[in-house]
Amino acid sequence: MHATVFAAFAAVASMALALPAYAGKGGTAPTTTITKQGRNDNKIFAGINWNWGVRNGATAVIGYRWAKIKDNERVHGALIDMTFALSGAAVGPGEIHLKALQGRRSVQGELGVGYGLQAGAFLLNGGVRAPYVNLGTDYLFGKGWQPYIGIDTLGRVKKPDEVSTTTCPAGSVLQNGTCVID
């Protein structure tokens, strides 16, 4: 009986003496928080539109899109492009557009202004853009409407960045992926 009590006392005493050796070791798991953060998705693009109205035929399109994606996946930005008539008129420069865009990652509305080089007229533009397709119309002052539908290389706008933050409870520090007592 004395041997059992002595063994128990020795075990408790050895653990009490060993506790200081574990200071700064182990601890709780850190908390990781993932948040979304806005980003830019700027791209050069090319495409082809089919027009009817003032000019019937195909036009090649080349341009640049500036897009800012917010953390809630709303998109706003601008787009500049130039078209080149391929059929329905003399082959050559068609229209220059400067458009504002706004919407979601998968679809944006466009409103803009420009100039029709072949028509010799200023224009207003409105349209909608989805991944790889666009639909809209130009109104050329003194000439009339020029609706179009087209395909291009602009896919879906990228997702917002995801940023992870790892934290430990008060009085602890992060060390090798574990929170340790400071």
Biggest sheet overview? 8 strands, antiparallel, barrel
Beta-strand residue fraction: over 45%
Query: What is the share of helical residues?
Result: under 10%
Instruction: Going across the biggest sheet, name each strand in turn.
Output: 3-4-5-6-7-8-9-10
CA-atom Rg in angstroms: 32 Å
Structure classification: mainly beta
Number of strands: 13
Q: Name the shape in a single word.
A: rod-shaped
Strand and helix order = HEEEEEEEEEEEEE
Account of the protein in words:
It is a single chain. The chain has 182 residues and is mostly beta strands. 9% of the residues lie in helices and 59% in strands. It contains one helix and 13 strands; from the N terminus they run αβββββββββββββ. An eight-stranded antiparallel barrel has the order 3-4-5-6-7-8-9-10. The chain has a two-stranded antiparallel sheet with strand order 1-11. Strand 7 and strand 8 (121-130) form a beta hairpin.
Blueprint (SSEs and pairs):
Layout: H1 2-18, E1 31-37, E2 39-40, E3 43-51, E4 57-69, E5 74-85, E6 92-104, E7 108-116, E8 121-130, E9 133-140, E10 144-152, E11 161-167, E12 172-175, E13 178-181
Antiparallel strand pairs: 1-11, 2-4, 3-4, 3-10, 4-5, 5-6, 6-7, 7-8, 8-9, 9-10, 12-13
